[in-house]
Amino acid sequence: MATAHRRTGPCGTANNDCVGAESEENGGKRAILALPLTIRQARQEDLPTLEWYGQHTPHREIIAGAFRLQERGDGSMLLADVNGFPVGQICIDFLRKRPSGRATLWALRVFQPFRGLGIGGRLVRAAERVVIQRAVPYAELGVDRDNAGVLPFYERLGYEHCGRERGQFLYHTPEGRLVRVAIDQWLLHKRLTEGAESATAAPDNGRCLRLAGD
Fold first, then answer.
1. Looking at residue 98, which CATH number applies to its domain?
2. Residue 31: beta bridge partners?
3. Is residue 128 part of a domain?
């Protein structure tokens, strides 16, 4: 399964203090918070938190499988960490399409309160850097055909249509129920080179998100 986008779904250190500010706007107060963001590999202790308060508990087997792939050296599981909480995730599978020189990006997701802040793009670019480090020529991903609204996001990142994939994906819920998921996706790919911006950009660590709320 080459799914990158599928419908499913404490501060105060010396270097990463949270900053808050208030300004008057339309007679009220608008709070702006800056939060430190780090892109890093997943650790064993992250797995329960990646269920996002039950939202992805049915996908526990999938999350664990992605982590095992990383442990074997056949994959990578990158997280967007905000104050110790994984607000975003992307996985890389180096094994599935290794003979064709492709790494599969999949399971890109961002926790709802943090969407629209550019985290998805940062995760994709971080994944591309990992793919380049492994000397794999292409990054490939899948987008469900009933989720066409996300295509412009990937196109802006340089991905091009390269085919279609149909099939079935199976997993078990924690209760032992077998779930069959039909796959009907557009495939998109991007050729990655050593001269690309994604290869030379500094690691996306210690940057700040700015959250505004009324």
1. 3.40.630.30
2. 22, 213
3. yes
Compute the chain's Rg from CA coordinates.
18
Q: Is residue 16 part of a domain?
A: no
Domains contained in the chain, number: 1
Q: What pTM does this model have?
A: 0.80
Please classify residue 141 by burial: count the beta carbons closer than 10 Å to its beta carbon, then call 0-12 exposed, 13-18 middle and 19+ buried: buried
In-domain check, residue 212: no
Asked if 60 contacts 35 with a C-beta cutoff of 8 angstroms, the reply is no
| Cα(176)–Cα(117) distance, integer angstroms | 36
**How does pLDDT run across 148-192, given as a tens digit for each residue?**
999 999 999 999 999 999 999 999 999 999 999 999 999 999 999
Model confidence over 51-108: pLDDT tens digits? Answer: 999 999 999 999 999 999 999 999 999 999 999 999 999 999 999 999 999 999 999 9
| β-sheet bridge partners, residue 205 | 38
**Residue at 20 is within a domain:** no
**Number of H helices and number of E strands within the chain?**
4, 10
Determine phi and psi for 211, rounding to 5 degrees.
-110, 130
